[in-house]
Amino acid sequence: MNPNDRQRNDRFPQSPARRRLFTAAAAVTGSLAAWPTLTLAGAAGPGTNRLVLVILRGGLDGLGAAPAIGDPDFAAARGPLGQFAAPPLRVDPTFALHPSLVELHAMVGQREAAIVHAVGLPYRERSHFDAQQVLESGGTRPYELSTGWLGRALVASGSKGLALNTTVPLVLRGRADVDTWAPSVLPDPSADLVARLERMYAGDPALATALERARQLRADSPMATQDAAPAGMAASGPRPGAFVTLSRRAAEFLAQANGPQAAVLEIGGWDTHANQTNPNGPLAAGLRQLDLGLAALRAGLAADGAWQRTAVVVVSEFGREVAVNGTLGTDHGTGGVAFLLGGAVQGGRVVADWPGLAKGQRYEGRDLRITTDLRAVLKGVLGDHLKIASRSLDAEVFPDSAKVRPLQLLRG
Amino acid sequence: MSTPASTPALAGAIAAHRFGLGEPSLEAVGSDPQAWLNGQIGPADAPQGSSLLGTAAALENVATELRARRAARAAAPGSAASAPDLANLYREVIAADVRSRLLTAASTTRPFAERLQLFWANHFTVSLAKGSVRGLVGAFERDAIRPNIAGRFETLLVAATTHPAMLRYLDNWLSAGPHSRIVALEARRAARRDEGTRVSGINENLAREVLELHTLGAEGARNGAYTQADVTAFAAVLSGWRIARDPAADASRFDPDWHEPGRKTVLGKSYPEGPNALYELLHDLARHPAAARFVATKLARHFVADEPPPALVDRLAAVYLKSDGQLGELYRELIHHEAAWTPLPAKLKTPEEFVVSTARLLAAGERMFERPEVNAGGAVFSLGQRVMAAPSPAGWSDRGDDWLGPDAVWKRVEWATRVADRAGRSVDARRLAVESLGPRLGAESARQIERAADGSQALALLLLAPEFQRR
After folding, report:
1. What's the pLDDT tens digit per position in A306-348?
2. Number of helical (H) and strand (E) elements in chain B, helices listed first
3. Which among A129, A196, A233 has the least Cβ separation from residue B218?
């Protein structure tokens, strides 16, 4: 059922060398071959599938979010970072999820979520800003491309995108039809003023386009005027629950019959240089917020049956060093983790060509070695879910990526 | 000197809006726009506002917070100190800092200097988004940035890098040399008590960002100007630069107990043990050709175009190297370069620039920043930018695309509507448009403002006109 050899259902090998594994969730017994082959009554012309991209900005610690507790070198490699305030949530004999990821863990158990580990970009340096540029542009080097891979994919599939943000992130930039939406705190201006502004913006296409899209979007939004005011100036960091609110709104837009096919959500705060073991620290709190947001997406889409046609991809620009730094945190690294969830995902498993954690197995002796190109994950999802031809994926969406074969991660 | 613009009136309008923060009347610029800008080159104005703390007092506040936390823990072991009480310690400090920043920009008669202050505060971002610098960002801007915007880049770099707010923001205060005395002491203490160590080694956050965001630029790394080994060695040079134990006696921010012993090699050059290595290293970084190029590009991008003209960047970089990083020389070159005076404005104002220039247009001054319902800090926030709280050490974007999402533009429309509802009846937007924008006011905008249904709508249209949104 899986043409790609990476997907063979190998047993967990005992060799400490690089090993191939592809495991079913421990919580789910029974053979993988028993996947229900029936799908989804009434599904799913290509246009009706939904894709959500969640970008974790700052560099998620992959081994913090999905610790390889069964790796023989885990405890020694991670030191104090291997200790969690509550037991990690076991996925299989090797991998677990951070105790904050309760909802995601439940989705793994229901075979709606998969973990892709030791994954990363072709970019191997440690700059946030360059790595995010590569992550979003879909190139191999920073600034070689100035538009985003999802933007190009939407052009290729003739789909519409939505950024749950005030501005359009690079990943959606290009010629694609993209809207932005963020909660409003002020009353709506009059239609008369907007009509006059449209005339005034006739000579300024950038402002004119933005205004026209905003006007349409406001008209479509089910919740346009009902949002609470944001917290005051003194709060630090993103206000609690902001991601959950955005996830809920994203689900509302995506559930509409003529809604966008793809939505991008962003959540910052993953640059955990310090205090990572604290159960109320930035990593645990960030994962909790992420977890609640993913659950809100699921709940919002499940109500309309759209969840069955949804794939959510959660990515970060890079992982972090394997070892603890001097401040109970981790410094910038390369290899990390990605999550896939949604009714369209063939879940309940960890997909990894596991490189091991011993010093000699790490990249430059420091980082979890990248054994899966993130583009293979993204290409697999875009090909299967948005029905984008492989020629287009190889040449336009991810230029010069023919050698990066798509992973099959969705239900066939 | 090159002719800056086709007519003196157009040059005046460009000077006021592109290099300044807007003026209600172009008379403020006078008959020689270049001389008006030239005369502003120097340290930024003394900040306006009250209850502003210096760095020492701001640090004392941080120490008070720590003591309060400790006391709360001691009183109720196991529970975290109650957050609301501690937040109150900072709320007033932050409110005063934000208000001062906006009020100073809205009322200064040297708006070019103020723009440069805002530019450098963003270049050396220290952000309230990180809890560890709460209450310190205003002091950082006033003490490290304002006095140093027109001196040598090296002076500004040293002031920013060694300021306690930066040392905290990028974690350097927690970074200890792996072979430092504190690590050895901590290891013994931990062994005695059978606990984990609290201090064990290097944190390379500040070292990396000084290289990537403050001096050589990410392009520097891509071109091989520095490597991971340089970052690590630089972090060792920086170890020990932290907050003095007694902030009131802020004689030195260097603690030798935390410093990594021995010489370090950064960018192929060997630096001695001790605090002076940082000054030597920053001196060398400031003279690096990649730094000249990086600063020149950012400055040209900020004032002229998202993709600045290469000729202008080359010229600024050359002046930087020739003058040994004299920033005043760079500004002079910028305002005398033809490429900086193109009639069509290429840049979109950031939300903060939009709100501040609105306050200046309406001569709203204090009023705008006193009344809670038009609280300017809140206004900037509602437009997508939190004052002094950039989302990352890279600061706010300086590219129009990043502020041009439909939602961002819509929020500007909403905010302008609200301001105009309040102020529109007491000003004549038609006259204001002509006096403020001069020859930059286009025919279509003038027509729409002229035909507006009422004074409020006319003012909203002026605030939202492309000529006022762009600079």
Report:
1. 999 999 999 999 999 999 998 889 999 999 999 999 999 999 9
2. 24, 2
3. A129
